[in-house]
Amino acid sequence: MTGVLIIGAGAAGAGRQRARGPERGQSIEQSVEVPFRVAAVGGKVPVAIEVNEECATCHGNGAAPGAQLRPCGECSGRGVISFGQGSFAVNRPCPVCAGRGSVPSERCPTCRGAGDTRVSRKVLITVPSGAETGAKVRLKGQGGKGAAGGQAGDLVITFTVTPDRFYKREGLDVVATVPINVAQATLGSRISVKTLDEKKVAIRIPAGTSAGKRFKITGQGIEKDGKKGDLLVEVTITVPETLTEAQEKAMREFAEAGGMKF
Ligand SMILES: [Zn+2]
Ligand SMILES: [Zn+2]
Questions:
Q1: How far apart are CA 258 and CA 35, in angstroms?
Q2: How far is the CA of 75 from the centre of ligand 2 (A)?
Q3: How close is the Cα of 93 to the center of ligand 2, in Å?
Q4: Which of 17, 37, 165, 188 could form a disulfide linkage to 99, CB 3.0–4.6 angstroms apart?
Q5: Ligand 1 centroid vs 113 CA: distance in angstroms?
Q6: Of 16, 3, 15, nearest to 115 (Cα)?
Q7: Which ligand is nearest to the CA of 67?
Q8: What is the fold of 167-257?
């Protein structure tokens, strides 16, 4: 009988001292991926967390419903056992009753006597605008539930910002790379660009624009601590991979007219 109980107590781990009053819940650290746009403008991300929570069947005492609790024979109901002698004695939670001071006549079938169960919970985490990889938020009391009236633990979330195909970040500025074609680059054009909040803004590309040139859209960057960055539109120039005969002829004439080497 006692041997069976030791297994349950071992799973519960050392340091558990239910008999000695409220116990603070488990603190949970977890990293979460945040899409670039959410990190830039702020928003919410769902996070699934695994928490140890007080078993709902036995309310943490490890006993099956209707089971009788008897004082633990190992620790005489004290919940602790002394190791060593005299002033070197150390009190440890009793391994047989897991510090509770009592043992049930039958263990709780839900938690197998451990007193707590592993629960999966979904929480929505608020991401502040301008969040960067490595930034942490501590949500007080959002970790594991406390036992016997103890405070809940904290939930500490570390952000990892995932890259975007279109945007990249430079401080509070956001750089958007936009491809234009050779005709747009040489003759000029108007193009439309999406801002971080998914509005479309038209910008004028002047004639004679080279690849890598940046155009600023003021105030459409990242807002953080009362400051606001800009959206920088950087153009790349796409060149047709194949030309029709007519296009090739026209391009040769274009180059010769301008004295361009080819
Ligand atoms: Zn239980
Ligand atoms: Zn005991």
A1: 47
A2: 4
A3: 8
A4: 17
A5: 6
A6: 16
A7: 1
A8: HSP40/DNAj peptide-binding domain (2.60.260)
